[in-house]
């Protein structure tokens, strides 16, 4: 029975050549760049929420009017939301980093195991 | 698929989720060709395939952060390609035959393989078989995905995937034989 790897490489050889794909690759590179900027912006969303809450609180403190309590209450709830978002982000980031470290270790073990097997076969 | 390869894909998914520098470029470099082949095989032409793939990258980069199982990266990417390609085909009313739900039973005996044929012959034969057969066979050939993973990509049961792979191979063999290939 033929391995799929062989059929795979034969099929992929039928794709358009790199010259034909050049335009597409430029567009993908631009897309990646744009996405990275968006990600950077998303990364600090919780910080912006906390800043907005602080500004609202300061505005509420300085404003001597009937709406002062409303400002303070809104600032409090936005602050809570910001703290929650921040905690969720940190937790998720920690999980991903931990999984990444574990996967790197697993990969090293598998590579060493493969190298040992190759050596034994020789 | 080897566990080492699987671990590499998982690490790549995690690197993307951690927004590591160069991770997206690596993802595109590794998955571009098989995804493009799958997209072209579903849509039937190169231009549509490239459009589908571009849309796939946009969706994948936007949503990779919410991918729960990094080990399912390849199946997840193929399912995005599948979804986008099917949407396009539905819009252009080409997929009516593949959309017909039908009960399938099959006999697993004498499953054909593809030893001697050249790439162009297999490629051409794939284009002649039904879309529902073509998509599972391309996934099977390109990535050696499990039936569970293929079922998740194409959205049907594992039994249906197994029967489709069987019938797809048989149809391929028939097409290749008619074309003068593989008479052995």
DSSP E strands of chain B, number? 0
* CATH architecture type of the largest domain in chain B: Orthogonal Bundle
Q: Indicate the structural class of chain B.
A: mainly alpha
Apparent shape of chain A? elongated
Structural class of chain A: mainly alpha
Question: If you consult CATH, what is the topology of the largest domain in chain B?
Answer: Rna Polymerase Sigma Factor, Chain: A
Give the mean pLDDT of chain A: 83
As a percent range, the share of strand residues of chain B is under 5%
Count of helical regions of chain B: 9
Low-pLDDT stretches of chain B are 98-105
Number of strands of chain A: 0
As for the number of domains of chain B, it is 2
Describe the biggest sheet of chain B? none
Brief overview:
Chain A is mainly α.
Structural write-up:
The complex is a heterodimer of chains A (122) and B (184). Chain A is an all-alpha fold. Chain A folds into 2 domains: 1-42; 44-122. In chain A, 84% of the residues lie in helices and 0% in strands. Chain A is elongated. With 184 residues, chain B is mainly alpha-helical. The model of chain B is unreliable at 98-105 (pLDDT under 50). Chains A and B meet through helix 1, helix 2 and helix 4 of A and helix 1, helix 2, helix 3, helix 6 and helix 7 of B.
């Amino acid at each position: 029975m033929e391995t799929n790897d062989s059929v795979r490489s034969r099929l992929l050889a039928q794709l358009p050549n790199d010259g034909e794909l050049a335009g597409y690759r430029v567009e993908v590179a631009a897309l990646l760049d744009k996405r990275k900027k968006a990600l950077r912006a998303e990364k600090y969303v919780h910080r912006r929420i906390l800043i907005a809450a602080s500004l609202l609180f300061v505005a509420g403190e300085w404003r001597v009017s009937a709406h002062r309590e409303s400002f303070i209450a809104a600032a409090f709830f936005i602050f809570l939301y910001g703290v929650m978002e921040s905690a969720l982000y940190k937790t998720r980031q920690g999980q991903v980093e931990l999984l990444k470290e574990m996967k790197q270790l697993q990969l090293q073990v598998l590579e060493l195991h493969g190298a040992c097997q190759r050596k034994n076969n020789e | 698929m080897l566990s080492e390869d699987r671990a590499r894909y998982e690490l790549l998914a995690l690197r993307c989720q951690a927004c590591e520098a160069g991770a997206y470029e690596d993802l595109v470099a590794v998955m571009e060709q098989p995804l493009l082949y799958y997209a072209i095989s579903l849509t039937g032409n190169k231009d549509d395939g490239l459009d589908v793939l571009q849309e796939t990258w946009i969706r994948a980069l936007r949503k990779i952060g919410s991918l729960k199982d990094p080990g399912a990266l390849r199946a997840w990417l193929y399912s995005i390609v599948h979804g986008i390609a099917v949407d396009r085909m539905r819009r252009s009313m080409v997929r009516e035959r593949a959309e017909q739900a039908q009960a399938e039973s099959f006999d697993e005996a004498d499953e054909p393989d593809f030893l001697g044929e050249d790439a162009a012959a297999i490629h051409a034969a794939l284009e002649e078989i039904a879309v529902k057969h073509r998509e599972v066979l391309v996934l099977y050939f390109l990535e050696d995905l499990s039936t569970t993973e293929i079922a998740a990509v194409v959205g049907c049961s594992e039994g249906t995937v197994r029967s489709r792979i069987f019938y797809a191979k048989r149809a391929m063999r028939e097409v290749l034989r008619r074309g003068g290939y593989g008479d052995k």
